[in-house]
Amino acid sequence: MYGNMCVKEVKVMLTKKFGIEIELTGITKDNAAQAVKNIVGGRISHTRDSYNTINITAPDGRIWKIMNDSSIRKETRRGTTSSNDYSVEFVSPILMGSEDIDTIQKIVRALRGAGGKTNDTCGIHIHLDGADHTVQSIKNFINIIASKNDLLYKALQIEPGRIKWCKKMDQRLVNDLHKKRPKTMQQIKDIWYNEKNAGSHPHYDQTRYHFLNLHSFFEGNHTIELRGFNSTLHAGKVKAYILLALAINNQALNQKMASCKKTQEENEKFAMRVYLNRIGFIGPEYKNYREHLVKHLNGSSAWRYGSDNPKYKKNQKEAK
Description:
Elements: H1 2-13, E1 18-24, H2 29-40, E2 43-46, E3 54-57, E4 63-67, E5 88-91, H3 97-113, E6 123-129, H4 135-156, H5 171-180, H6 185-193, E7 212-213, H7 215-218, E8 223-230, H8 235-254, H9 268-279, H10 287-294, H11 310-319
Antiparallel strand pairs: 1-5, 1-6, 2-3, 3-4, 4-5, 6-8, 7-8
């Protein structure tokens, strides 16, 4: 029954819309645009804006973008450079389903094959459609991230230089959410911005720079952004990150209530494996993606108490 439930959750989460931004360097924006075009087809056009955007319009009408990002340390194959041509941010259109995830993986491989690389200033941001979210599901999302803060940061090995762009959950926010028990989106917005009757805020408002960014939900394009991923051109890791984002989103949408209580972490790998199974990462087809997400955690994913714990040794002895 548990397995069937998880398979159902996987199918549901793959019907939700998402988008992804991948920061990289090592190649020019023109070379990156050509790599994307080689996968999605269509035509390339340039926009004269502050981001020097290059559009790749696919035959299906969707527009993929290559843009500047000033936060990236620019590199060529020979070393660092001051040329903005090597500041590359890949931005997808609205995506949905396994086929689009497969396309992202092909693009990632193409960017790497063209000479693309990442460094500790590069990140991946995943945007989730906010259309179906309610007051309760937004509260759930905040509490889920708060409860998994430490586990996620260790599992994802967030680079120290990127922490300022994806800070941990603000404890003030969590406390106010628990104390004030908001009943409307405006009340949650007031708590998010720590203001009474919070109004509009600029695009680059400082509240956006958290693992969970709700500024994009309140003031942007009504999406929920997860910013806590180091950039990579490893296609398997990118898929693992997308699946994790979709699974957490699905949990927030469908769970009746979520607690902000910290996850018990005496065995980090076991705690993460149980959580991943719970939200849909179950079965052999998800084995590789589970491994990407538990690789950097301590403990044993198979035994709750770990191989160094007396309870583990007792269980092993009894098993013999």
